[in-house]
Specification:
The chain is an all-alpha fold. It is 74% helix and 0% strand.
Length: 201
């Protein structure tokens, strides 16, 4: 397969994978739309805030799987850099999903899955750091933040600097989504909790 065609197909597949609105589907099955409750983010964390860990676990797993599948597909079709492009496309799809009115989440789990495919040892170190910080601080959220922000430093121990730079570019997509979400929250009023939702995390 010619490299440009492999790149185009991997990017298209990554975007479509990322566009599957897992959080919206899980939320609707539970009687709410995560885009209208909590922080209005259609992602795993907002579903967890509404349903707790049991209800949110499928979202964490499947959103991570979207990024991982995109990365593996890209690598299989054209090598590591095509894999990075496919993961970026999956993150864009998660953030602006064609199957959910282009109203998506912040792509953190898609990034994590992509990193698992592109640099498995970095991902493993990140999971270990997450567990250590979460246990020490008794906060999974704090552990997840530590693992996310430490990802480039961890990868620098294992991979060439060019790979670390590409991972940083993927992380910038997450930063962009947080900035856009902050701006949107300033322009709109507070959201409501889902009917019958449990305590917020």
């Amino acid at each position: 397969m010619p490299p440009p065609l492999a790149l185009a197909l991997a990017v298209a597949a990554g975007y479509l994978l990322g566009s599957v609105p897992v959080a919206v589907l899980v939320g609707r099955a539970a009687g709410f739309d995560p885009r209208t409750v909590g922080d209005r983010n259609p992602g795993a964390w907002n579903v967890k805030a509404q349903l707790g860990w049991p209800g949110a676990l499928p979202v964490f797993v499947l959103d991570t799987l979207k990024g991982a599948l995109a990365g593996l597909l890209g690598v299989a079709m054209g090598g590591l850099w095509v894999g990075y492009a496919a993961v970026a496309a999956a993150m864009v799809g998660h953030a602006w999903p064609v199957f959910a009115g282009f109203r998506g989440g912040r792509s953190i789990m898609a990034f994590a899955g992509g990193l698992a495919a592109l640099s498995p040892l970095t991902f493993a170190l990140g999971v270990a750091l997450l567990a250590l910080v979460a246990l020490a601080a008794r906060s999974f959220a704090l552990g997840a933040r530590a693992a996310f922000f430490a990802a480039p430093l961890l990868q620098l121990l294992l991979d060439p600097a060019s790979h670390v730079a590409a991972t940083g570019a993927l992380m910038s997509l997450v930063g962009l989504r947080f900035a856009l979400a902050w701006w949107a929250a300033r322009r709109s009023g507070p959201a409501t909790s889902a009917p019958g939702a449990g305590p917020r995390a």
